[in-house]
Backbone:
DNA sequence: CTGAAAGCGCTTACAG
DNA sequence: CTGAAAGCGCTTACAG
């Protein structure tokens, strides 16, 4: 079992002190070019890399970010993670991903471990159970910035980066108006979620403001299966009208599409379909579903730059809302 | 910025030595019950937790597993990760997830960082570019076990845990035979991937052995879009026969289904559809697609127990194949 | 039963 | 320009 090379080994081989090696390797100006070159050559040869545990113990900094998400099965999070990783690489930080499984207890454990490992910062989408801000405030006391994204707490003074629920709902509603569709079945998620309230409220308002008498029926589904059931039971009474189905999320879209397929209906001939989505499910159908996209990668960029500002010392808490964009498929 | 409590702080407050505190906290038999109790009480109160960097520097062990996957957008990996996390928790290990983005260079960096962090072990699904075994052998030299899963190298003497490609292909072929379908369009992935060769070979063999003259046409697609294109161009000539489409993966299924929808065909009336899948895409359609499932969570359990055996000292390299199971939808 | 001491691998203020 | 020394927080063989 071979050991990794250390400063000491390099120092011994070159008959210099450990301090000198350490300095040479970080291009300290004091070191003579000659010595510096020799040391770096040998380090290269030996594939030296500092022991991160020793460095951290000494410097109290890990140059490592943690991303905590409730679940991995989510395109939105993938693109968020991807863009954080990309940015982090540029700044010389590494990224570790943790999954809370939407379990507040596991989330706590992860936070604790992040604290002990003195990560440089945490990006977190909280679980739906999370109601205690204390662990997060504790991170702050320890000087570890926390950026909440997507699923954020109610608590005011913290950094939050969210998708623009209102804006996405607005885009979808506008598209429906543009297509001049008079009847709309809006399928929304759990009415207790803030995201549901925001999307529903905006969606309804925009349609109403349009003046022309649109008929909007809204229903709530807590799961894909429920969305399927509801859609299935409602479709018969809508089939002879000109109408569209609006799905506020991918989960709901999946259920609704199953019901629509089951009834043998096809968009856009038999009905219009439009959704708010992270961008993968809509592409599985033909024609592709038109949707207002909530983009994780842009959110990631925003979150990252906020993080860097926190690390640089900004203690000012901020809520950033990212705007959505309409991706036109052929379903409406 | 508050500091985490240390052994020293506890020792000072209790007027004992650091050694005593350290021992008490790990229930060393030498410590008197009285002292032990006092120390543990204070530690509890102060929420003491050992600094993992110091521990590692001292002991050379991290009790942390790394999971490296090319991509996160994969149900199979989610369930694999989930089951590793579950097992690890039981044994007191933590798990960090890394994403190589299917980029061999990034994969190398991750491996290097795992080596320096002296993770206790690595579970890895390699990128499609990975061709150099050297970094993996190096892990071995450093005493870090590597368990390959799903995407594994050709290299013989290493630990591999794979889905049963042959078995999955067999199940799909048998279902086709059972349904008595004479014409089969088999859509496979990149012919250079071992997974493609294994699935194709078995699928073809089983169909041939069936005796009755089945007609199998096989094509290869490197992406979802390509699968769509190919399916689209071939469908016309098949439409007047009784036939089935077999998709060797989710990616291909997604493309093929788009073409099928585009042509206005519906399973099982107009054609049969069957796939090998991780289990999410088939559920988006109505009727649900029948598929041979490759289950990540069972693979995770197998990989984990192999890992524990490696840690316990087994140097015996082993290849484990997990069997598949048929999930019947209504598409064939 | 308890403590002093060495050492894991690094960084950095201090001295020369 | 270079080195000796202290110290980050822990563990553990050694001594008592």
Residues:
């Amino acid at each position: 079992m071979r050991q990794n090379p250390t400063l000491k080994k390099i120092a011994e081989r070159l008959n210099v002190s450990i301090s000198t090696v350490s300095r040479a390797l970080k291009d300290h100006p004091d070191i003579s070019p000659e010595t510096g070159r020799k040391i770096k050559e040998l380090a290269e040869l030996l594939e030296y890399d500092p022991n991160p545990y020793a460095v951290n113990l000494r410097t109290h900094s890990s140059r490592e970010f943690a991303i905590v998400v409730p679940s991995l099965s989510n395109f939105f999070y993938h693109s968020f993670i991807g863009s954080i990783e990309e940015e982090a690489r540029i700044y010389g930080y590494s990224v570790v991903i943790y999954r809370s499984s939407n379990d507040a207890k596991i989330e706590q454990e992860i936070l604790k471990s992040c604290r002990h490992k003195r990560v440089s910062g945490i990006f977190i989408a909280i679980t739906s159970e999370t109601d205690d801000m204390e662990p997060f405030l504790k991170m702050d006391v320890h000087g570890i910035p926390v950026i909440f994204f997507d699923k954020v707490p109610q608590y005011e003074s913290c950094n939050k980066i969210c998708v623009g629920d209102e804006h996405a709902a607005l885009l979808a509603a506008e598209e429906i108006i543009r297509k001049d569709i008079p009847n709309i079945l809006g399928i929304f998620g759990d009415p207790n979620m803030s995201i549901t309230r925001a999307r529903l409220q905006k969606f309804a308002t925009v349609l109403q403001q349009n003046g022309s008498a649109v008929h909007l029926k809204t229903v709530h589904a807590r799961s894909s299966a429920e969305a399927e059931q509801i859609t299935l039971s409602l479709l018969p009474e809508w089939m002879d009208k000109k109408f569209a189905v609006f799905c506020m999320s991918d989960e709901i879209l999946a259920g609704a599409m199953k019901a629509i397929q089951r009834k043998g209906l096809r968009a856009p001939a038999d009905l219009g379909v439009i959704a708010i989505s992270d961008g993968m499910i809509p592409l599985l159908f033909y024609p592709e579903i038109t949707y207002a996209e909530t983009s994780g990668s842009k959110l990631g960029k925003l979150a990252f730059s906020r993080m860097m500002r926190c690390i640089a010392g900004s203690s000012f808490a901020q809520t950033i809302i990212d705007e959505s964009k309409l991706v036109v498929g052929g379903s409406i």
